[in-house]
Amino acid sequence: LYLGYTQTGLWDLHGDSYPFVDTSFKPSLFWRKDAILQSQDKHWFLGMAAGIDIINGKGGDDSRSLNYVYLQPELNYRFSGGSTLTFGPRIKGYFDESENSDYRRYAGYVDWKIRWAQDKGLMLTGLYRHGSKNYNMTQIDAAWPLRRTPLNMNGYLHLQYFTGYGETMLGYDQRSGPHFRIGLSLIP
What we know:
Elements: E1 2-11, E2 20-38, E3 44-56, E4 65-79, E5 83-87, E6 90-95, H1 103-107, E7 110-118, E8 123-130, E9 136-145, E10 155-164, E11 176-186
Antiparallel strand pairs: 1-2, 2-3, 3-4, 4-5, 4-6, 5-7, 6-7, 7-8, 8-9, 9-10, 10-11
């Protein structure tokens, strides 16, 4: 059982005075087990995660929040060379959508996710969401551990491609992109 916290801020380095476009705060409570079932050779294994995410942003006229519970089965294949391929669709059930009652139309009910990760190396992740009509989102991330850079600290250097709906909680109903980004993920 885990308690998590994610804070995401999008910084517009091309705008006047370099403003933050949006900042979201996401505390979460979740359960996770990496291998519920495993093949005899331990190359294939099925993991599972379930939890609750509470996403909040600004107050006042820009106030918004989103709460959902999820179940995420993860089918994994462990390669002999020290990497793992994971397919993990996150199935979501929304509740308390008073501020964003139409969010599910834009994000749908499943986050389709695939990830390939080297042990202590490169991690590639693809994420796709499909809401109703043509409301969809595609995000591709590449991450490199900061431990393997001169910074030698916990976290990752990220490169990201994004296009579609739901980029921010404030503008979830506006199409955005394509965007290419660079960022840092710091882990205590």
